[in-house]
Amino acid sequence: MGKWFPSIYDMAMRPLEKTKFNKIRKTLVNQAIGRVLEIGSGTGMNFPHYKNATQVDAIEPNPLMDEQALKRMERSRIPIQTYLVKAEKLPFADNTFDSVVATLVFCTIPEPMKALQEIQRVSKPNAKILLFEHVRVDKALLGKTQDVLTPLWKKACDGCHLNRDTLELIKQSNLSVMEVDSYFNGIFLTIKCLNET
Ligand SMILES: C[S@@+](CC[C@H](N)C(=O)[O-])C[C@H]1O[C@@H](n2cnc3c(N)ncnc32)[C@H](O)[C@@H]1O
């Protein structure tokens, strides 16, 4: 894991703060209510956008990401607690959360199906699962380009798979997909799910 990645990532994200990209992030995060679990919170880019949550438990396995997140956590209006753990093994009891948020993270999680099972386990019945992810595009040339670039991209970008089909993985899980919106030629999706089990 590159030591430089958290700083570069934060620097790359900051110019997007006033763009459509950030509006999508903000609109999605705003929909999280009650006790919220955030998966792979990174440098805390979502922390300023929690307006309707009562409490956020944010998990992030990279301690270097966490250092940057602390500053945003201190400025937040709602209580946020961070945990240095992975999504594949969550330290929470069954049926704990009203909402789960994951942005730009399922591309990087080594075992995404295990993470989805854990999210489902710790979510209350009918909890909202809100994701904003980049995915493999369903167009021959662009999709193939993502496949070819992925091995190099993974090395440069902290394990990120450019070509991960996160929507398909969710459809194979026990979560129910309620709404999907596509942005930037289908490279980015917001995916809203319910834990109906
Ligand atoms: C591209 S960053 C996104 C950060 C943040 N969610 C955002 O929207 O800016 C991906 C994050 O996923 C985290 N990550 C990697 N493996 C993970 C895992 N197994 N469980 C949870 N998070 C993980 C990385 O450490 C990194 O902070």
From TrEMBL:
GO terms for molecular function: methyltransferase activity. Residues 37-130 form the Methyltransferase type domain. GO terms for biological process: methylation. Pfam families: Methyltransf_11. It is an enzyme of class 2 (transferase). Transmembrane segments: none annotated. Keywords: Methyltransferase, Transferase. Its EC number is 2.1.1.-. This is Class I SAM-dependent methyltransferase. It comes from Lentibacillus salinarum.
